[in-house]
Amino acid sequence: MSDDKICVGVISGAYGVQGEVRVKSFCAQPDDIETYSPLTSEDGARSFALALIRPMKNGFVARIAEVATKEEADALKGTQLFARRAQLPVLPDDEYYYSDLVGLEVFDTGGTSLGHVKSVQNHGASDLLEVHQPGATATVLLPFTQAAVPTVDLGAGRIVADPPDGLF
Fold first, then answer.
1. CB 34 within 8 A of CB 53
2. Measured between alpha carbons, how far is 104 from 117 in angstroms, rounded to an integer?
3. How far apart, in whole angstroms, are the C-alpha atoms of residue 66 and residue 68?
4. What angle do CA 137, 139, 141 make, to 5 degrees?
5. What is the DSSP string of 66-90?
6. Which of 39, 90, 147, 162 falls between 20 and 30 A from 79, CA-CA?
7. What is the domain class of 5-87 according to CATH?
8. What was the pLDDT predicted at 1?
């Protein structure tokens, strides 16, 4: 994935038989996804002019101009939608795009390396950093809260964590 693109949503399948799609937005204000249109696929090979029709549970019903049938909409299921970083708002100092956190080295408050961020996950309650420890096959889910992660230094490519006891 290119550093100049940010994943802002995903097509989760067809909606009805007229070529409409279900879209899940990853934006802080979910309906902002429409303002970043046209969106692209991860490789940039496809472009999608997205128009939101109405909200639905866990997302929106949307229309893509080039999609006219249910079969075409079904074929797009799972397609991640990317916007150019320049289109997105500048974030406050204590907020981060997930893609900026992936790959950062994680250290404890004593300076010992805990691993690197493999992914950022959110299952509803709060964000979790999936940390891959050096020499381990399993990963650890670190709560991405001010208490557990007091420092994120994007410039230095590092995170300082104060994980709960027994987590690592």
1. no
2. 5
3. 6
4. 170
5. T--SHHHHHHTTT-EEEEEGGGSPP
6. 90
7. mainly beta
8. 39
